[in-house]
Amino acid sequence: MGDLRGYFGIDLPPGGMPFTGSRFEHLAGGGDWPEVADRITAEDLVAVQALSVTVPVSVALDILEGPLGVELSGLLHAIPRDIEMVDAEADVVADGSPADQAWRLLRDQPDVGWVIAGKLLARKRPRLLPVYDKVVRCALGRPRPSFWLALHAAMRADDRALYRQLLALRQVAGVPETVSVLRVCDVVVWMGHRAERHACPR
User: Fold this and answer.
1) Which of 134, 171, 186, 200 is the most buried (most CB within 10 A)?
2) What percent of the chain has pLDDT over 70?
């Protein structure tokens, strides 16, 4: 609980600073509010920088002003906005789904890759799609067929025990409900494992 509170800057001592990632979901009101939910905005591109990644300028411009942005908007429109991963059917996050297509489209852009692609989509659908980076992969591995499907199954297992545990942790830690359960999970894993990432296989 202490790691979670520290990450989001809850009751920090004088002079203490929260992690920059604490602004990821809240910058400019979030990436999933109705007016911007189906397009990637300049604010979204800044928000992912709070998670220590940067979208290459050429790709960012194509997202904001070019055909890449139009294609991504069409895919985002097909990804449910008002649903949590635990409530979604598996096919919503399965291979070939609009979410998977959007991830692959972003991943395959020059100098983007799987981490940045995942963080951009987590910004747009924070309750449905998780952040998954190298630290989390080091901690949890590379589940098959995908991390999304493995997490979806874990959230629903044992009468949603993990999901309910994360909900309770968010409440006890005093983290606002605007922070999704998926982000609580991400922050807990990331904070617990970040000091050990030097030992992760490349």
Assistant:
1) 186
2) 96
